[in-house]
Amino acid sequence: MARKTGSHSEITGPRVRAAAQRLFARDGFAAVSMRQIAAEVGVQAGALYLYTPDKQALLFDLLKAHMDDVLSHWAAEPKGGGPQDALEAFVRFHIRFSLTRAEAVFLSYMELRNLTPEHFARIEALRRAYEDQLEAILAEGQVAGVFAVPDTKLATMAIIAMLTGVNTWYREGGRLSRGRVEQIYQDMVRRAVRA
Amino acid sequence: MARKTGSHSEITGPRVRAAAQRLFARDGFAAVSMRQIAAEVGVQAGALYLYTPDKQALLFDLLKAHMDDVLSHWAAEPKGGGPQDALEAFVRFHIRFSLTRAEAVFLSYMELRNLTPEHFARIEALRRAYEDQLEAILAEGQVAGVFAVPDTKLATMAIIAMLTGVNTWYREGGRLSRGRVEQIYQDMVRRAVRA
């Protein structure tokens, strides 16, 4: 007996996403076929189309789910009282969250160019919403006189690039613990922006 | 009459590289065929093999040429007397050089995963040689007592990631001139590391 589409989606959705993310991250979006994703999940290619209309929709889903995750987790993060505490919280959060979702972060940077213009615009808007969270902290500290930043937008982009860079070199069990890395980056960021 | 391989290579080499870089940057290494590169250059696919043994060799050539370029241009850059001047020179150089070679920089980050392990190791060694240049400046400033950096390796990675990030958002003719962007980043970096 054929399963209903609904229940089928519920069962395979997370597995389809996980398989697509793994293959896209390993081989690149362009090189991966729907057939390969289906094989990785262990279903027929036809079954995949019950879950997603096409590979583009799958990529957009992955990138959107990641940004939604970033935004909701940051919203739930304790931030302390003032802008200095909030900045420390942001640095710690961004490094920790990025390292625990390294594959999703990698994909988010690598495959932006493969989104359709409409999908790209939606992901960009979510990224901007996240950047705005940091910029608001910097602007608040500026008003309070605790930060001296010549341009809050540039400082935002500089800090996020610096923090995301950790993903390119950090290895668990390496020379420095994650906590120590977070401390060192907090120290550099604090000094870069303080009044 | 058939041309000699040597003279043929001299004629088409730069055009092959330019075409490959353009196509790899636009569509990704995996999605581009030797046939497409040949068509872009305006030669038969067979002629391409007079210049390069395969697509992998072409990718390695592009990434290696870029790193050789970075290193030789940095070596030729005026650096002033002490570590503070050298750090300002490095920030200005890295932003300016990266923005003028945006396609090569993009490719260098995007296609590392498509290098063979042996090619990857050679490119990594060149990247490390470049990172070592900045780390030496930080270490010198540390000894001289003008910088206070808890970990020169981490500061190196943080600064390079921050500077390369400019490529993702900077647009010529945008809100800020390149000179102004360089100044703002110099200011942030100087403050992040000073004693």
From TrEMBL, chains A, B:
<dbReference type="InterPro" id="IPR041490">
    <property type="entry name" value="KstR2_TetR_C"/>
</dbReference>
<feature type="DNA-binding region" description="H-T-H motif">
    <location>
        <begin position="33"/>
        <end position="52"/>
    </location>
</feature>
<dbReference type="InterPro" id="IPR001647">
    <property type="entry name" value="HTH_TetR"/>
</dbReference>
<dbReference type="Pfam" id="PF00440">
    <property type="entry name" value="TetR_N"/>
</dbReference>
<keyword id="KW-0238">DNA-binding</keyword>
<dbReference type="Pfam" id="PF17932">
    <property type="entry name" value="TetR_C_24"/>
</dbReference>
<protein>
    <submittedName>
        <fullName>TetR family transcriptional regulator</fullName>
    </submittedName>
</protein>
<dbReference type="InterPro" id="IPR009057">
    <property type="entry name" value="Homeodomain-like_sf"/>
</dbReference>
<dbReference type="GO" id="GO:0003700">
    <property type="term" value="F:DNA-binding transcription factor activity"/>
</dbReference>
<dbReference type="GO" id="GO:0000976">
    <property type="term" value="F:transcription cis-regulatory region binding"/>
</dbReference>
<dbReference type="InterPro" id="IPR036271">
    <property type="entry name" value="Tet_transcr_reg_TetR-rel_C_sf"/>
</dbReference>
<dbReference type="InterPro" id="IPR050109">
    <property type="entry name" value="HTH-type_TetR-like_transc_reg"/>
</dbReference>
<feature type="domain" description="HTH tetR-type">
    <location>
        <begin position="10"/>
        <end position="70"/>
    </location>
</feature>
